[in-house]
Amino acid sequence: MTDKVLFVVEPDSPIRLDQYLIAKLTLLDDFKGVTRSQVKIWIENGKVALNEKVILKAGSKLSIGDNISLQSQVIEPHELTPWDFKLNITYEDDELIVIDKPAGLTVHPGAGNKTNTLVNALVYHYGLDNLSNPDSFRPGIVHRLDRDTTGLIVIAKNIEVQNFLAQQFAKKTALRNYKALIRTLPRSVAEIDTKETGRIETLIGRHPSKRTLMSVLTESGRNAVTNWKIIERFYYGSIADIKLETGRTHQIRVHLNHIKTPVIGDKVYGDFSMLPKELLRVADKFGRQALHAYRLGFIHPKSNKLIEFNSPLPDDFEELVSVFRNFS
């Protein structure tokens, strides 16, 4: 690969910088497999110059005769291996799919798991050409659920639908509710033990020392808002209905632990040493955080009407709740 790749914009070429580069680079042997997301990162990192001036906006407009230069980059192979995994489809039409995700299923490929994810299963069943944004590692993905969080997730079949749905999530008009079994204690004076509803609003970002974890921060991070409502109380726990206004990584788990009522089974963020041994045993056997995305609603991109879906608690979740409910 040369140290710098040079182009001159010709008539009938794409006029957006990112679109132009992806169209031209994929014709070169050295850039086979380059993706739109990789090109965008190069632009935002100052690797691209327009008329000898570094340009940082992927959507910058081009004119005929413009000179574009790109510093040579290492191309990571882009491949999504199809995975024969049965999907629990709640709803499907020509525009989108609503899936009830089981525990243990990661949504998209990442470090440590590049083959056994929801995306790989989507590629197996639908093929990349029938999902939005097929040249990324997240085709079709509009929003995410943690690996061990169960419940409803919507998948887009084309980029127009993905953008339409993504705007609803960004503007907080999409309906997203979770049920969580949380640790509450008999003599606790935490807010969630003394009130029936509440709202948590903080900044959330990477933990200052444990970089794989998220944390409530005071001076940096992104704004995060979680609403909660108690559905049923037990002696050592409660079922809470959780409604998100934002969608930060691990938001529900971090927020509930922040107000001293962690999600049962969440060994990453919660401390459950004060629970009776019997409840500790069943929570350990359950093996994950007791969090289920039971409600999902949004405006459909074609009918322009609200559609809403509900998912019952998984059987093992119901069994866990039953043990907490009957414990005295």
How do you describe this structure in short?
This protein is α+β, with helices and mostly antiparallel strands and 328 residues long.
Description:
- The chain has 328 residues and is of the alpha+beta class.
- The chain has three domains: 4-71, Structural Genomics Hypothetical 15.5 Kd Protein In mrcA-pckA Intergenic Region, Chain A; 89-170, Pseudouridine synthase (2-Layer Sandwich), CATH 3.30.2350.10; 175-326, Pseudouridine synthase.
- 22% of the residues lie in helices and 27% in strands.
- It has helices at 17-25, 36-44, 118-126, 159-170, 191-194, 251-258, 277-286, 315-326; strands at residues 4-8, 48-50, 53-54, 67-71, 89-92, 96-101, 150-156, 175-182, 197-206, 214-217, 222-233, 238-244, 291-299, 306-310.
- The strands form two sheets. Strands 5, 6, 7, 8, 9, 10, 11, 12, 13 and 14 form a ten-stranded mixed β-sheet that branches. The protein has a four-stranded antiparallel β-sheet with strand order 1-4-2-3.
- Strand 13 (291-299) and strand 14 (306-310) form a beta hairpin.
Structural features:
alpha+beta, single chain, 27% strand, Pseudouridine synthase, four-stranded antiparallel β-sheet, 3 domains, elongated, ten-stranded mixed β-sheet, 14 strands, Structural Genomics Hypothetical 15.5 Kd Protein In mrcA-pckA Intergenic Region, Chain A, 328 residues
Show the helix and strand layout:
Layout: E1 4-8, H1 17-25, H2 36-44, E2 48-50, E3 53-54, E4 67-71, E5 89-92, E6 96-101, H3 118-126, E7 150-156, H4 159-170, E8 175-182, H5 191-194, E9 197-206, E10 214-217, E11 222-233, E12 238-244, H6 251-258, H7 277-286, E13 291-299, E14 306-310, H8 315-326
Parallel strand pairs: 7-13
Antiparallel strand pairs: 1-4, 2-3, 2-4, 5-6, 6-7, 8-12, 8-13, 9-10, 9-11, 11-12, 13-14
